[in-house]
UniProtKB/TrEMBL annotation:
The keyword Glycosyltransferase applies. Allosteric enzyme that catalyzes the rate-limiting step in glycogen catabolism, the phosphorolytic cleavage of glycogen to produce glucose-1-phosphate, and plays a central role in maintaining cellular and organismal glucose homeostasis. Phosphorylase is an important allosteric enzyme in carbohydrate metabolism. Enzymes from different sources differ in their regulatory mechanisms and in their natural substrates. However, all known phosphorylases share catalytic and structural properties. Its EC number is 2.4.1.1. This is Alpha-1,4 glucan phosphorylase. One of its GO terms (molecular function) is pyridoxal phosphate binding.
Length: 818
């Protein structure tokens, strides 16, 4: 049965989305339900329909995918490879439908089949193969590379279990395994024949004639799973290739036949463990053996695949850099430096100096943090045990690099540029830097700090290597798809040029003073808030007033992101309202969402604090609708898609100098939220673009923070001199929010009193005052909407399309096709 759909070839060749009729699509879904899912309509569950629908849409994507692959081969252009431990993709059905421009037909077909499109979308599980910003950035980049027609592959790990599901039990975070594969399989193709061997451990020997042998003591097979990623209008489709780890032999038959069933399966379990789970730590490096194996596993398989593809059309391995640009998303794939050298030297018999030259022309490295606890270091003993050959290669690189530098007579400290520190730890950031063509930061401020701090000496040695590529977000998912109300308004006002050229959204800035546009803009926001209010009630049973100010902080729970500052302000506001309920208050709903790493005790306690505060505030009859606190469990991409369009105020309140960029800040501003934030990461650039009247900046600058920390900050005096702050901290420890356990937050308070490394107390007053200005400003609805429109229309520069154009030019040396 041929159940693919005839596409209008004339339209297709013009680079436009081919026409697809609703009837043809409806029949395709019917056929999928019957022949691929194996169900009769009368028996089909919602999941069955959703699968049939996804498979029918997938066929549409596959058509363009083949064309793109053929065109890339024929074009013989340089190919981009994006290596990332994390891809936080989220759901794919609506994304594919919107990118292909077939939403109308799909909706009509669904209606005719008697199924609800929206409900179908919610059947799909959220592919959470990432922790937070870094993984979501990789997903936005995949979207943009397809949209720009850049031939590219994303490479990562096909974890059986992505990021844990978060539940609250009595306000405490509880982690549960998630099972995305149960319903997301519709989008991937297993490539059983695309498999590579990856070795670990063992011994190295030399034959005396220049050949090196690595006799490993463990070998696993990396099997490819491909997901097509369609760009805007389906003009180009790239591949996300994720590797699953499998045993080389399925079963130890010898042991099995001896009745030793358990140990017969042992190798299988050992091998499959490598791609079993995503490490749930965000911006903290854990020096665990399994993590190292995961990093090497996907990097090695990806490099083997890259070289195989290169050699299909080329025969001179030395010309690899002309065809191949490999991006390392942070240091997680930094072992690529040693692995590519190993392959070139040991398999292709190039000398180390030759191999090193080629390697550093192919690879580039993106740094996403300067926080010491996040910079990966590997113990040399562990490393030598798992990757003995790579240890030798890294020792060679370190030695030769130092020798090269010593000859240059520059004022750098050799200790600062060593890759192997004290002979006992490998600094992966240093390895990545030395092995790269370009190294980039992710916002202007962050790149500047890279040059001044962590990579200071390297920057002296290689002044052209560090470049800035400020992060961006895809306007397809983060406006067109998640905010249909605003999308429709923009389409009506300025057409659709902004969808793949987001700076055009500025054409709508002139409507900020147009009363009728403003009303429609406000109405779209209001509808989104009603939708979110319903979701809040559904999830946590809390009723909120959808006309209140929606104040949103959604991101991983981390001390440096300072959810605690927000909670303290909530407490202080609660106390103020209680003292004077008759005053003029601006009704507010504080919305929190975010997971804490399972081992991050203090972050988990702050979640508990937020929940305890929420319980007390939400049930206090004196407070009523003046203040509500909604702590939403299991924040993920899909929940973000509901929260972001509904936000009025975006909390970006990290300690200045600590958030490399942030990307939630961009998503919220694009959807019309005003930012309250510090001059940190990309907030600085957002402020430049929206202008000082349309953003609330408060607190210490990165320079202030550095100075204060150097002088030694004493929070005591600050707390004692600010009764509002002191009142809030006191309430935290006197049992107001934890009557069952007065001591529950003692440790949190002690940290504030004694060290306060993240300078929560230092910024409190400025933050609290700024929030009161927000209260007053929000009451002027006309003016607020005007400023909200100016946020939406002035942040077009933060499209990930712009970011990818930057990488193409400054880092990869490729030319976008669109
Ligand atoms: F530690 N980021 C993240 F730098 O989400 F590797 N996970 C991580 O493990 C790291 C960084 C790492 C984030 C940054 O914290 C955020 O500021 C940035 O916007 C994002 O990466 C994308 O660049």
């Amino acid at each position: 049965m041929n159940d693919t759909i005839r596409i209008d070839e004339a339209a297709g060749s013009a680079g436009q989305a081919p026409a697809l009729t609703a009837e043809a699509f409806r029949e395709a879904v019917r056929a999928k339900l019957k022949y691929a899912v194996g169900k009769d309509p009368s028996r089909a569950t919602a999941k069955d329909w959703s699968m049939a629908l996804s498979l029918a849409v997938r066929d549409q994507v596959v058509e363009r995918w083949f064309e793109s692959t053929k065109a890339s081969h024929a074009g013989q252009k340089k190919h981009v490879y994006y290596l990332s431990m994390e891809f936080l993709i989220g759901r794919l059905l609506n994304d594919a439908v919107c990118n292909l421009g077939i939403e109308a037909q799909v909706r009509t077909a669904c209606a005719e089949l008697g199924i609800d499109y929206q409900a179908q979308l919610e059947q799909e599980s959220d592919a959470a193969l990432g922790n937070g910003g870094l993984g979501r950035l990789a997903a936005c980049f995949m979207d943009s590379m397809s949209t720009l027609g850049i031939p590219a592959h994303g490479y990562g790990i096909r974890y059986d279990h992505g990021l844990f599901r978060q539940r609250f039990h009595d306000g405490w975070q509880v982690e549960e395994p998630e099972d995305w594969l149960v319903s997301s399989r519709a989008w991937e193709f297993e490539r059983a024949e695309m498999a590579y061997l990856v070795k670990f451990g063992g011994q190295i020997s030399f034959d005396g004639h220049g050949a090196t042998y690595w006799r490993a003591d463990e070998t696993v097979k990396a099997v490819a799973y491909d997901t097509p990623i369609a760009g805007w209008k389906g003009r180009h489709v790239n591949t996300l290739r994720l590797w699953a780890s499998r045993p080389v032999e399925v079963l130890d038959l010898g042991r099995f036949n001896h009745g030793d069933y358990m140990s017969a399966a042992e190798k299988t379990i050992r091998a499959e463990t490598i791609s079993r789970v995503l490490y749930p730590d965000d911006t903290t490096a854990e020096g665990k053996e399994l993590r190292l194996k995961q990093e090497y596993f996907f990097t090695s398989a990806s490099l083997q695949d890259i070289l195989r593809r290169y050699l299909e059309d080329n025969d001179d391995i030395r010309k690899l850099p002309e065809q191949v640009a490999i991006q390392m998303n942070d240091t997680h794939p930094a072992i690529a430096v040693a692995e590519l050298m190993r392959i070139l030297a040991d398999d292709y018999r190039l000398t180390f100096p030759e191999a090193f030259e080629i390697t550093r022309q192919c690879l580039s490295y993106t740094n996403h943090t300067l926080m010491p606890e996040a910079l990966e270091r590997w113990n040399t003993n562990l490393f030598r045990k798992v990757l003995p050959r790579h240890m030798q290669i890294i020792e060679w690189i370190d030695y030769h690099h130092l020798a090269e530098v010593q000859g240059r007579n520059l004022p750098v400290s050799l200790d600062n540029i060593r890759i192997i520190e004290w002979g006992s730890e490998i600094k992966m950031g240093s390895l990545a830097f030395v092995g790269s063509r370009r190294v980039n930061g992710v916002s202007a401020l962050h790149t500047e700090l890279m040059k001044q701090t962590v990579f200071k000496d390297y920057h002296l040695l290689y002044p052209d290597r560090i470049v800035n590529e400020t992060n961006g977000i895809t306007p397809r998912r983060w406006l067109y798809e998640c905010n249909p109300g605003l999308r429709a308004l923009l389409l009506e006002a300025i057409g659709d040029g902004w969808v793949d050229n987001l700076e055009k959204i500025e054409d709508a800035a002139k409507f900020a003073t147009d009363a009728s546009f403003r009303d429609k803009f406000a109405a779209a926001k209001q509808a989104n808030k009603v939708r979110l209010a319903a979701e809040i009630e559904r999830r946590i049973g809390l009723r909120v007033d959808p006309t209140a100010l929606f104040d949103v902080q959604i991101k991983r729970m981390h001390e440096y992101k300072r959810q605690l500052l927000n909670v303290l302000e909530t407490i202080a506001l609660y106390q103020a309202i209680r003292r004077g309920p008759g005053a003029e208050w601006t009704p507010r709903v504080k919305i929190f969402g975010g997971k804490a790493a399972p081992g991050y005790q203090i972050a988990k306690r702050i979640i508990k604090l937020a929940n305890d505060v929420a319980r007390v505030v939400n049930n206090d009859p004196i407070i009523g609708d003046r203040l509500k606190v909604a702590v939403l469990p299991n924040y993920n991409v899909s929940l973000a898609e509901v929260i972001i369009p509904a936000a009025d105020l975006s909390e970006q309140i990290s300690t200045a100098g600590m958030e490399a960029s942030g990307t939630g800040n961009m998503k919220l501003a694009l959807n019309g939220a005003l930012t309250i934030g510090t001059l940190d990461g990309a907030n600085v650039e957002i402020a430049e673009r929206v202008g000082p009247d349309n953003i609330y900046i408060f607190g210490l600058t990165a320079d202030d923070v550095a100075g204060l920390r150097q002088r030694g900050y004493n929070p005591n005096a600050t707390i004692d001199s600010d009764p509002t702050l002191k009142g809030a901290i006191d309430a935290m420890v006197n049992g107001t929010f934890s009557p069952d356990d007065h001591g529950r937050f003692n440790e949190v308070a002690d940290r504030l009193w004694h060290t306060d490394w993240f300078l929560v107390t230092a910024d409190f007053q400025s933050y609290f005052q700024t929030q009161r200005t927000v209260d007053v400003d929000y009451r002027d609805k006309t003016r607020w909407t005007e400023r909200s429109i100016l946020n939406t229309t002035k942040v077009g520069w933060f499209s990930s399309d712009r970011t990818i154009r930057g990488y193409s030019k400054d880092v990869w040396g490729v030319e976008p096709n669109f």
